[in-house]
From TrEMBL:
Organism: Streptomyces glaucescens
Keyword Ubl conjugation: no
Domain NTP pyrophosphohydrolase MazG-like, first and last residues per copy: 159-233
First-level EC class: hydrolase
Keyword Hydrolase on entry: yes
UniProtKB keywords: Hydrolase
Family annotation (CDD domains): NTP-PPase_MazG_Nterm (cd11528)
PANTHER family: NUCLEOSIDE TRIPHOSPHATE PYROPHOSPHOHYDROLASE (PTHR30522:SF0)
GO biological process, one term: TTP catabolic process
EC number(s) from the headed UniProt entry: 3.6.1.19
Record's protein name: Nucleoside triphosphate pyrophosphohydrolase
GO molecular function terms attached to this record: methyltransferase activity; nucleoside triphosphate diphosphatase activity
InterPro entries linked: 4pyrrol_Methylase_sf (IPR035996), MazG-like_dom (IPR004518), NTP-PPase_MazG-like_N (IPR048015), NTP_PyrPHydrolase_MazG (IPR011551)
Amino acid sequence: MGYVRIVNATSSRPAGTPDQAAPGRVVLLTTSHRVAPGLLSWPAWQALRDADRVLCADGAHPQLPYLREAGIAVDEAAPTAEELVDACAGGRTVVVVATGEGEPALTDGLARLAGSGRVRMPELELLPASYDLPGARLLDLVQVMDRLREECPWTSRKTHEGLAKYAIEEAYELVEAIEDGDRDELREELGDVLLQVVFHARIAEEDPQDPFSVDDVAGGIVAKLIHRHPHVFGDATATTPEEVKEHWVRTKAEEKQRTSVTEGVPLHQPGLALAAKLASRVRTAGLDVPLPASEGIGYELLALAARAEAEGTDPEAALRAAARAYRDAIVAHEERIRSTP
């Protein structure tokens, strides 16, 4: 990424020609608080070193100690737009190190001056000095959760047990958004699910016997993903989704030293999902285990779930779709009743 330059058309002059009335240049330097202070782009360091003056309105700005250590003289000042234009007179360059909130008053003032036509404006540049990497906003979520845990009467009292039901509710709402094809709702529900992860990890930090943090959670899943995808991060080869899944199941069994393919299957999940998961484990492991032969609706549903899994259908999703169609039929029937004289 580069910088944005807004050039005043009247400010150009032949190279090497002195012009005491030259309008100069203003560089608004922005930084991300999610990047360690001092890690600035090379164009940013060039602009800082070439500037005639560097200003910053925030005396506690995290970049200031590093700029001064690098020999950059920074004046702690918050100039008005008019004062900034005057400071650039004679062709001088002024760099403004923006605060975390940006410089809305200053930029609005510069815009008003430019729009008035009464002032010869300097060149205006917006120069991002550091950029957020993908996932950087997760740091904000962690910080917000830290503060809520410390200051919010509701958040500070929650436990893993008290939050468990919300994890289930949010997961179901996420599934509903996916099945409805609602992109806005999907984004929101993903955030709600992510909140549950960060919330539980924050609570876990406070455990006196066995604390762990969200970094431990993230580090664990990163290590797991790398280990279970040797065809991506190692020398193994997998050309089909089935081969990937087979390796995943085998590696997982080796890691956890399991003696049965049924280990690790949560028995408290919905019945159809449980039946399909067991059938999937059996099929993936290449086991020949016939379904128990007995009468009753439960065994009939078990057979249907196993059949659905074998055909690549999620029985829970299929039943939800059928149930929604049934709901729509009920609503339509009720409307007909209401509209009948």
